[in-house]
Design brief:
Order of helices and strands: EEHEEEEHEHEEHEHEHEH
Shape: elongated
Strand content: 25-35%
Distance between the termini: 27 Å
Bound molecules: S-adenosyl-L-homocysteine
Helix content: 25-40%
Structural class: alpha/beta
Radius of gyration: 20 Å
Number of helices: 7
Number of strands: 12
């Protein structure tokens, strides 16, 4: 079943339309025709099985056959704040993998050891959209504008499990902390290639984050993010 995206504004009770880039993907790339069955997701938690009724030059008109709420979505809401990487391909990879793993928000962080940011939010948001469709999710992770660690820490993230994986911490492990209590939401804060400074870690702890270990080995940022998100997703599943 191929997945396509259309925003909630294009959906009414028993029908929806697909336009723009998604229409081009539907017709030119996937070569869909009238009466073909496809699945359309709205990015805010709804998936619709539809049949294409009419294709004109720019719009596909589809009849909704059935609706699935939060199809393939995790039960824990995870926000990943992560230092922007010098290696853009690795950050692209990180955005794609964490989307597949079920993250809902990605915040590119500017920290003492990140290089000036090149404003790639649109690119990363497009990667998240493609990954959402590929993996069969119906929630589109929001990739925010890059922000400094301190502006990120100022947000309260009330009631969330707040974790900062740090390679200089031997315990507790992230598993131990995540299993302690079931949290509906979690916020992860992962450092860039050069890691966080001790002062940055201290500021995160003051802001309510717990420093946790991801094991004895020093993981690259993308590995640490993927490992931490995976462990939270598994501990969050009931
Ligand atoms: N500062 C390290 C590398 C940082 S790795 C060095 O000296 O090379 C990038 C980020 O991954 C870290 O900021 C931390 O958030 C996370 N990380 C890497 N290995 C980790 C581990 N074993 N436990 C917890 N977090 C880890």
């Amino acid at each position: 079943m191929e997945y396509f995206y259309t925003p909630p504004s294009h959906i009414v009770t028993d029908s929806l339309t697909i336009e723009g880039e998604e229409f081009a993907h539907l017709t030119h790339v996937m070569r869909k025709k009238t009466s073909d069955a496809i699945r359309v997701v709205d990015g805010i938690g709804n998936a619709y099985d539809v049949v294409i009724q009419e294709l004109n030059k720019h719009v596909a008109h589809c009849a909704i056959q059935s609706h699935h709420h939060r199809l393939h979505e995790p039960s824990i809401d995870v926000t990943l704040a992560v230092g922007v990487l010098k290696n853009h391909a690795k950050f692209d990879f990180l955005v794609e993998k964490c989307t597949e793993l079920g993250v809902n928000t990605i915040i590119p962080l500017l920290t003492e050891r990140t290089i000036p940011h090149h404003g790639k939010t649109d690119r990363w948001q497009k990667l998240a959209l493609a990954a959402m469709k590929q993996c069969g999710r119906c929630v589109l992770p929001h990739v925010s504008e890059a922000q400094t660690l301190d502006s990120f820490l100022k947000k309260t993230h009330a009631s969330s499990l707040k974790l900062i994986p740090h390679e200089k911490v031997e315990s507790p492990s992230i598993m131990h902390v995540a299993k302690e209590k079931h949290f509906p939401s979690a916020v992860l804060c992962v450092g860039p290639e050069g890691g966080f400074t001790e002062n940055e870690v201290a500021r995160a702890i003051t802001a309510g984050f717990s420093a946790v270990s991801l094991g004895k080995r020093r993981l690259r940022t993308e590995t640490a993010a993927i490992a931490a998100v995976s462990l939270l997703m598994m501990s969050g599943e009931r």
